[in-house]
Amino acid sequence: MNEEMKPNEADSNDPLGNTDELISQEIPHGVDRRSFLIRSAVGGAAAVMTGNIISAHERIEKAVATLPVLPQQSTSAPPLDPKLNVVQKGKGPVLTTVDEFYKVGPGPSSSHTIGPMRITYDFYQRCTKLPADKLNRATALQVNLFGSLSATGKGTICNMGAEIGATCSIFAYDEKMSAYLKATGREEVAALADGIRDYLRPDKEVYANPEKYYDQVIEIDLDELEPYVNGPFTPDLAWPISKFAEAVKANSWPERLEVALIGSCTNSSYEDISRSASLAQQAIDKNLKTKAEFTITPGSEQVRHTIEKDGFLKTFDKIGGIVLANACGPCIGQWARHIDDPNRKNSIITSFNRNFAKRNDGLAATHAFVASPEIVTAFAIAGSLTFNPLKDTLKNEKGEDVMLDEPTGVELPPKGFSVEDAGYQAPAKDGRGVQVVVKPESQRLELLAPFAAWEGVDLKGLKLLIKAKGKCTTDHISMAGPWLKFRGHLDNISNNMLIGAVNFFNEKTDSVKNQLTGEYGPVPATARAYKAAGIGSVVVGDENYGEGSSREHAAMEPRHLGVRAIVVRSFARIHETNLKKQGMLALTFANKEDYDKVKEDDSIDITGLKAFAPGLPLTMVLNHADGSKELVTLNHTYNEPQIEWFIAGGALNVIRAAVAKN
Ligand code: SF4
Questions:
Q1: pLDDT in tens, 482-501
Q2: Would you say residue 278 lies in a domain?
Q3: pLDDT value at position 59?
Q4: Are 380 and 257 in contact (CB under 8 A)?
Q5: DSSP letters along 252-263, please?
Q6: Cα of 263 to ligand 1 centre, how many Å?
Q7: Is residue 156 within 6 Å of ligand 1 at its C-beta?
Q8: Are 252 and 171 members of one domain?
Q9: Residue span of the structural domain in which 341 resides
Q10: Is the CB of 328 under 6 A from ligand 1?
Q11: Per the domain annotation, does 117 fall within a domain?
């Protein structure tokens, strides 16, 4: 934390004021319905901030219209909970999680300069130490930060919330968000949100007794928080920088850093880039050059144009940085990876959001680590994973030992954002006459055919396609990289279905038994063989099946290739919902040990579908090859509309029918 900034000092630009001031204001509270609307509005504002949802404007307007007029009251501040007192004593922000979305508690503000990814990783590390039932119950995550991060910093934390299963992570609306909305041309939304700012913060009862409202209160002391490096192979393996070099050596991870990449939708804000550029400038001033390949992927043309105008791109260029296209790019393996031997163990570090095996460059031997853009930049300069920028020196071109100073950043461009062509192409005002014409021989585009509706009977005689062992992320289910060129062609991209998943029975990837021939072959080809024979199939999975990107293809491909049910120990919830949307059965073992009952040659029935209803389990019949049978109870989380999706063969079919009716 900045020494000059006292932790409880209000940011003079922040009308929400400091902790004392905030809690002394009358914070409205009351009926659940109003509470719901308040939360919708908060969610909308946050979504605009991160650029994910376009309907924030209407949602806020709707919220405003429905809110009751508040009586003008003022009360004295209730005493803070001892845990929150640490904020007043200067211990920094408090992060809290709850499993009930609407029990929200965004917080007051104090200024600090720490990078959001540090907080994110520390938070995740603490969360991953929570008991499994706490995490599994986190059907929605609420992050409550008592501090004043930039709007884009909050966006980083919210974006990464998905990594621990959060549907949603929310911060209080504050002046930083207002300023960001205004700086990005959304003055109207900012004005609406400013007008109801009193609603966009927690009830005072929440501040007074957070334990009453939250499942877990996690304190993060910014004064002690170190930068983190995460990985390899998963973003939730978090190492504080002081322990990282030791971990690299102990695990024999390749010490030499080959590529450092900054960017991503989330970690390439103007602030992120300015912090990285400040390190790049230091490298220039201290006669250092990057030792690793260094790439910069701006998250949008607006950011790229602005950082070019403000000279940052030139600074990166001077230390050997290469600017890639504004896109997801290396985050999903779309870049030119230079390597002499693709099977050689090697290390890269990125500020991209995820780093599952093969995700960033398609190579199983690549050890990909994740860190904040500034830490990635520092590693690019050092070229070694055992470098600790907080205490280690580097030898410069003159042979002198030099250290990097703490980076500095600017939240919003002092001369404003600018862009010449943001690349947005508006859709036709009336799309009814628009015809989509696709060349029949195209390998990259294909018109989607509607999936078939449920046949109205229990599913019988399904074949086990694969029993996946261990981690099976959406990257294992539908790999990125070179496959992405087929994103518009469902049949072609389906040739990557589950090719990264490990078959429980032979511990191999992309090698499963075809029960029709007895031979082992690739997963997609085996699924196609069943489909051609008019036989449905079942995928069985382990814990947290489908974690990672909310990749829709990971649900569409099995649907397309005839998989009828995915039965797992537990789901990553976004993927579970994606499966439901595609009309699939997404089911969990009521008894997790029943995973062990599934055998390689099983034919499987799913029964109870005629009575498919919320909260009512289904049954899986395992017909073993020796003629014996076992019954397994399967739970599900379908609500009524989601059951309609299953019956209709997918959510799109339901929408299409509704449109036709109207
Ligand atoms: S692939 Fe996803 S996480 Fe990565 S940059 Fe693109 S949108 Fe962001």
A1: 898 999 999 999 999 999 99
A2: yes
A3: 45
A4: yes
A5: T---BEEEEEEE
A6: 10
A7: no
A8: no
A9: 239-397
A10: yes
A11: yes
